[in-house]
Amino acid sequence: MANKAQASIKLIAASDGITLDGYLARYGSYPLYQTYDDANVYIPDFESGSIAETEKPTLALFVANHATGKLMTPQTVDWMYNGVTLTFGSDGLSTNEGMAGTFKKIDAYNASYLGADVTVRALRVMKNLVSLTNMDNDRISASGTVEVKGKPVRFNDVGAEVVIQKRTDSLYYVTINPLLLKLSNEAPSGQLEAQVLAGGNPVKDFTGYTFKWEKITSSGNVTLQSGSSNKVTVELDDVDSMADILCTVSKGSEVVGSGFAHVEDESDPIQVEMTTSGADPNEIYEDDTITITPRAYRLSNYNETVAVDSWDFYSYDEQGKDVQLSGKDSAHFTGKNAVVSGADVHAADKGNGALRINAEHEF
Questions:
Q1: Is residue 351 within a helix (H) or strand (E), and if so which, with residue range?
Q2: CA 20 to 30 Å from 350, out of 9, 258, 268, 318?
Q3: What are the two backbone dihedrals, phi and then psi, of residue 132, each rounded to the nearest 5 degrees?
Q4: Against a cut of 0.85, is the pTM above it?
């Protein structure tokens, strides 16, 4: 069985024999994305009154036992914006200076996890995030605790990026919802949806558009679906432990954008996690060096490591194109780990600083 992993896997805490796996799932009709122009017009405009509250970007917090996949209930949650802890009033709206009413915390948000309806903590964007003094990408994150055997176990910095761009008529933005899809024997399939914004506005009529859905593998991209549908269904059989799914969007003969989603198979007997050292994978500078080391373990026992002599690595950019790392003969290489320079990360994707590492081993 082939088991695949990538650097975007985020393990956020470990204590008393339990490891927590946390992520933020985005709900609502709009992604975490805003544009601006020289006239200081923001699109989408979350304060215009034309966007219903339920359509605004809402981040649902999921924290699970990494070994069992069982969803945990946070006892405490701190929400942060660019590292600043948010404070809230009795109405749930943020009260921080300069961010009053910008965010709304929701302590009981209805969501779905592995095919089951669940209630989780969430944070909703209520006002514009772009402003005259804020025209760079931002970050929303959550930290907190869950209770294990009567003791608090902490999880830290579960985050999501807010993309802010200067708008032009030809500017397209593609994102996949959800960015992380978990499958299991109880939920053997799931749907991914590509959302396209043109000039900051959601595209609703896809006449003339083509969506090519591919699974990224070390031996080349595998087409799952290609056509006019911006949605694709992913089955357990499509995933070996985990996989990146790339959607390339074209309008006519022109490629206008692409987006990634990560799919995890929670049913495989052998799972793979990626650990990093040397630098923060969410904030790599050009003079950094980060080492990525995969670890295989039994689904039935997280602490039981499965020995692997060598992994097959594959490095690529946000368009799914090969990226040859410094000192390597190609984008495909083998070893115990992958050592990546910050310069390689910044050079990837024509300077946008987005590099993906995939590790694979057949058991």
A1: helix 342-351
A2: 9
A3: -60, -25
A4: no
